[in-house]
Backbone:
């Protein structure tokens, strides 16, 4: 019996000792080890590994450890709470960036942005697209850094359009005429990712509100100006959506489809157009049928709309340096290297995405990116649904209202009223940090 | 001496389990009650004590909470009404020595051994607007299913998930009740038969009283399962369309992990715990009977 007890105690202590001794050994003399935690999505890790090896060649005293995971934000959350953070991270779409900023967990980037850029004779700050860089500002300081960016608009089945002699619609009025023609052939004119109303918000409602009332309408809405979400421009946009709905121009059943499901309908030629970002081609790479041709357009605008027709929607994948990073200066420098014009062009060419660095599209663009890049270059102004990141609960309510409108449960008036109520709740709630554009 | 040794041995062997249980279960549970008193984003240690504000807001200022509770109660009531009678019926039927009873039992239990996620994905296909077999079958007999699929329609989404939930868990309750029914000695039925009781009377006066305890257990299980439902709903609809299938726990998940509203979500968790606790106690009180000793 005694023996057994001792055996048990021994087993227990060994486990405890063994688990305690597992702490990482500290870095060797003079060698700085950077930990870079990357969202492992469609772009993989290989490019970041490549950049790290290149950087190490220039800085022999630095070792960069890249690691990634498709749900990396779940792993990072407890580490942020504990203050044991990576030096640089792209925490992925599941991370609530602005909550991190509000809690003081993100490094302010101003002093790094003022330093000279790699490969260009100007401050690092000036190498970025300013619209995308400004998106990461809070209280006048830079926190969230853009890396690659996307353009959000509509895609049409170019092969189908050619065969039928259809022209891609520039205006809403042209769209109505075209939809009637398409509908007659038995093909659904437009499909959408019904389960995720974010797509319809960015593809229909906001561009049309901007077209009807000008960009300021949307800025007011993002700034939670009282009445902005139910302004005549938003009501007009909601009515346009209801018109397409009632005329049967949306694919039947789209409301019940998820993103890949509806995108599949588009690729199979059962729907002629779909709203989506520039990631569409890489997301559906394996499913694109041979010979399938698609092309990008900005959402068709009102012929006599107030908004400039070149206004384009763009958003970015974003990186941060955690406030408690052990080597923030080195991390910032490595990120500066990754966003240098040379590396940016390489990323564009290898990963089929645009980059937030000015001039990085001056390379051999993949075919699906040529038109979005052109739209972005020619845009007089750009926008992104920043409020969706700032005010997540409000965004959910707004998406719900839009979904209810699309499925015919409510009228355009009820829809915009529900959106305004959601904005009102956020406006009144003092516990939510407010943003201004 | 040996007695004392034994005590030490019991202590030593139980100690790791008690420690693990306390550290990973009891302590976090207790902590939840405390965290619920804070406004906390769950991303840093920065948190602000707000007292019972989270509870006040949930109960008086959050229509979605009541909507979720309503959906969960709907889930509970429909499951009770369908599963308990159906489960009892199958249990009694299978306990008769009919041919192939074993096979049927395996078939009924089958859905329960598949993972919830697989079940949810499978049924999402069944309910799908374009290639779902349900809509196709309806079309074949000249009827029209919901255009947006059963899960995309405000009126059919919740009933569709409930139906899947029942399909999934019925087998478990059949097996549970079957165990109860089978533990009743045959002699009781023989005695009842000699006294002239028909099969309904045997069921009413022998089976029911003797499986009552198991029945009670089944009801409490159902309460816990339906009020704590998450995986099925999350995979099938994520609470959509437009919150029409949002349940207490899908809402909690969203609050905590997507909206960084950890304190508030924890308060919701505490309320869910209290609701389950209260309803379970209430139900077992209601079902209290003189326990029949076998």
Residues:
């Amino acid at each position: 019996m005694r023996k057994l007890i001792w055996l048990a105690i021994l087993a227990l202590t060994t486990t405890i000792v063994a688990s305690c001794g597992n702490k990482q050994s500290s870095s060797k003399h003079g060698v700085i080890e950077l930990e870079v935690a990357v969202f492992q999505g469609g772009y993989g890790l290989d490019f970041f590994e490549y950049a790290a090896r290149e950087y190490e060649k220039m800085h022999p005293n630095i070792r960069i450890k890249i690691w990634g995971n498709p749900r990396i934000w779940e792993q990072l959350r407890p580490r942020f709470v504990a203050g044991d953070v990576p030096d640089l991270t792209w925490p992925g779409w599941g991370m609530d960036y602005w909550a991190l900023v509000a809690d003081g967990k993100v490094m302010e980037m101003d002093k790094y942005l003022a330093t000279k850029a790699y490969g260009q004779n100007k401050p690092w700050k000036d190498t970025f697209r300013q619209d995308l860089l400004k998106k990461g500002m809070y209280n006048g300081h830079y926190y969230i850094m853009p890396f690659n960016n996307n353009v959000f608009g509509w895609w049409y089945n170019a092969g189908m359009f050619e065969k039928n002699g259809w022209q891609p619609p520039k205006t809403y009025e042209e769209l109505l005429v075209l939809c009637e023609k398409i509908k007659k052939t038995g093909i659904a004119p437009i499909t959408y990712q019904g389960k995720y109303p974010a797509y319809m918000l960015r593809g229909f409602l906001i561009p049309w509100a901007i077209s009807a009332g000008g960009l300021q309408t949307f800025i007011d809405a993002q700034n939670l100006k009282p009445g902005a979400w139910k302004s005549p421009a938003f009501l007009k946009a909601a009515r346009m959506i209801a018109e397409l709905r009632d005329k049967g121009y949306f694919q039947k059943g789209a409301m019940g489809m998820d993103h890949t499901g509806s995108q599949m309908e588009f690729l199979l030629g059962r729907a002629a157009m779909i709203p989506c970002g520039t990631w569409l081609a890489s997301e559906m790479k394996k499913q694109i049928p041979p010979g399938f041709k698609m092309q990008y357009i900005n959402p068709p605008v009102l012929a006599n709309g107030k908004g400039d027709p070149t206004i384009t929607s763009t958003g970015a994948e974003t990186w941060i340096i955690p406030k408690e990073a052990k080597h923030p200066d080195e991390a910032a420098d490595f990120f500066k290297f990754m966003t240098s014009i040379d590396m940016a062009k390489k990323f564009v060419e290898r990963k089929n995405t645009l980059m937030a660095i000015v001039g990085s599209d001056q390379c051999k663009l993949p075919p699906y990116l040529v038109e979005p890049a052109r739209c972005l270059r020619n845009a007089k102004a750009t926008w992104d649904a920043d409020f969706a990141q700032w005010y997540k609960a409000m965004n959910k309510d707004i998406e719900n209202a839009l979904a209810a409108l699309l499925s015919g449960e409510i009228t355009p008036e009820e829809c915009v009223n529900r959106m305004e109520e959601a904005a009102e709740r956020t406006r009144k709630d003092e516990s939510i940090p407010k943003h201004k554009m | 001496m040996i007695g004392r040794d034994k005590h030490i041995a019991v202590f030593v062997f139980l100690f790791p389990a008690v420690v693990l249980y306390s550290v990973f279960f009891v302590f976090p549970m207790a902590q939840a009650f405390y965290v619920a008193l804070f406004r906390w984003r769950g991303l840093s240690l920065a948190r602000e004590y707000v007292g019972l504000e989270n509870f006040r807001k949930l109960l008086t200022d959050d229509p979605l909470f009541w909507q979720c509770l309503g959906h969960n109660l709907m889930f509970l009531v429909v499951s009770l009404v369908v599963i308990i009678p159906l489960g009892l019926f199958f249990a009694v039927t299978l306990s008769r020595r009919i041919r192939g009873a074993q096979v049927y039992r395996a078939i009924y239990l089958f859905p329960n051994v598949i993972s919830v996620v697989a079940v949810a994905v499978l049924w999402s296909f069944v309910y799908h607007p374009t290639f779902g077999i349900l809509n196709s079958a309806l079309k074949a007999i000249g009827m029209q299913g919901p255009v947006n699929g059963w899960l995309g329609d405000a009126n059919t989404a919740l009933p569709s998930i409930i139906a899947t939930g029942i399909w999934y868990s019925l087998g478990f309750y059949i097996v549970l009740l079957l165990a109860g029914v089978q533990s009743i000695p045959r002699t009781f039925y023989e005695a009842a038969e000699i006294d002239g009781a028909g099969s309904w009377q045997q069921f009413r006066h022998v089976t029911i009283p003797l499986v009552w305890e198991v029945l009670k257990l089944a009801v409490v299980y159902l309460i816990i399962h339906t009020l704590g439902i998450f995986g099925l709903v999350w995979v099938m609809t994520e609470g959509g369309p437009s919150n029409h299938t949002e349940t207490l726990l899908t809402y909690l998940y969203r609050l905590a992990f997507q909206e960084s509203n950890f304190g508030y979500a924890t308060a919701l968790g505490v309320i869910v715990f209290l609701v389950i606790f209260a309803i379970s106690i209430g139900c077992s009180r209601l079902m209290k009977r003189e326990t029949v000793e076998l």
The longest strand of chain B covers residues 38-40. Chain B touches chain A through 41 residues (CB under 8 Å). The two ends of chain B are 40 Å apart (CA to CA). Chain B has two domains: 1-33, 62-293.
